[in-house]
Amino acid sequence: SVSLLPPAGGDGDCPALTSQVGIVRLLEALFACVTFSLVVHQRDWEGRHGDWCMFCWCFCFAVTLLVLLVEFVGLQHRIPVSWKNFPITFAMYATLMCLSASVIYPVTHIQNKALYGKSKDYRIAATVFSCLTCLAYSVEVTMTRAKPGEVTGYMATVPGLLKVVETFVACIIFVFISEPVAYSPQEALKWCLAVYCICFILSLVVIVLCIGECTGWLPCAFNKFLSGYTLLAVLMYATATVIWPIYKFDSKHGGKPGRPSSCGSFCSWDKLVAIAVLTAINLLVYLADLVYSARLIFIQT
After folding, report:
1. Taken in order 158, 159, 164, 168, is the CA torsion positive or negative?
2. CA distances in angstroms from 98 to 50, 119, 134, 138, listed in the order given
3. Which of 179, 209, 271, 273 is the most exposed place for a label (fewest CB within 10 A)?
4. Neighbouring residues of 151: CB distance < 8 A, sequence distance ≥ 6
5. CB under 8 Å to 232, separation ≥6 — which residues?
């Protein structure tokens, strides 16, 4: 077994780097470093999409190094976070962030671009290593998530990982819904925005409480709070899943049923469709979360 404390000699915890999870984390850092190094070398990022991709790679690289350092030095019990919950939460977010970067970067920086020579080769290589980074983080999530009957942190369970997906999808919705502003002037669309915001905040609160080991601060049992809030989120997202397409794609309510001929590669109408699809996806995620949360309560009782 791997000790969580540094050896008496003070040389550090080598198994933290040589274990299977440690090796995967080293690969994550290596792939992320290679990715943003390739992009920086040719200065092949531009605009907000390029900034987001660069942020994803650099952020994941930096936090992965921090995780490796903490485990190597043996500071898990001295930092004010739950080490049963933090690494896998970060790994899940990193998987989604690198996945988004692996899609956004080639679409915005390779597709329909008149590229040639080294610039194109570097961008293709960066995309490949970004995909490898995403794959490495997904492997870590698979390796460290809770196994049947295993006692571990909540974020390592399926409902905990689904909370990460819920917040990430909500963040993408916020990006699409805010530019251009797509939730006015109808009150029904403002309700949809309220649904996205309320459910995002509650999911984020659960994640923060678990990482900070503050679930005891709740006025009721944690598992009952989870089931009640998830049921509420399912009902709220169900209304948004119906209301959004009605008011955006039904001509009777001022919507546009067809894609305008003036649309470019990804215009405002496409963003409305993306919001409708992401709303339906998050509804399914919350439904799965509710089912798994109910199963956890049943097992515990």
Report:
1. positive
2. 13, 21, 5, 10
3. 179
4. none
5. none
Q: List, for residues 34-66, the tens digit of each pLDDT value.
A: 999 999 988 878 888 899 999 999 999 999 999
- The whole-angstrom separation of Cα 108 and Cα 14 is 41
In one letter, which amino acid is 87?
A: P
- Adjacent-strand bridge partners of 163: none
Cβ(168)–Cβ(95) below 8 Å: no
H-helix segments, the chain: 15-18, 20-42, 47-73, 86-109, 118-144, 158-178, 187-211, 222-249, 268-300
What tokens does 149 get?
A: 């009957």
214 Cβ partners below 8 Å, 6+ apart? Answer: 208
DSSP 157: S
Instruction: State which amino acid sits at residue 21.
Output: V
Beta bridge partners of 181: 178
Across the strands, what pairs with 178? 181
CB 97 within 8 A of CB 59: yes
User: Nearest to residue 274, comparing CAs of 197, 180, 191, 177?
Assistant: 177
Confidence band of 297 (pLDDT split at 50, 70, 90): low
CB 186 within 8 A of CB 61: no
- Taken as a whole, the chain contains a residue count of 301
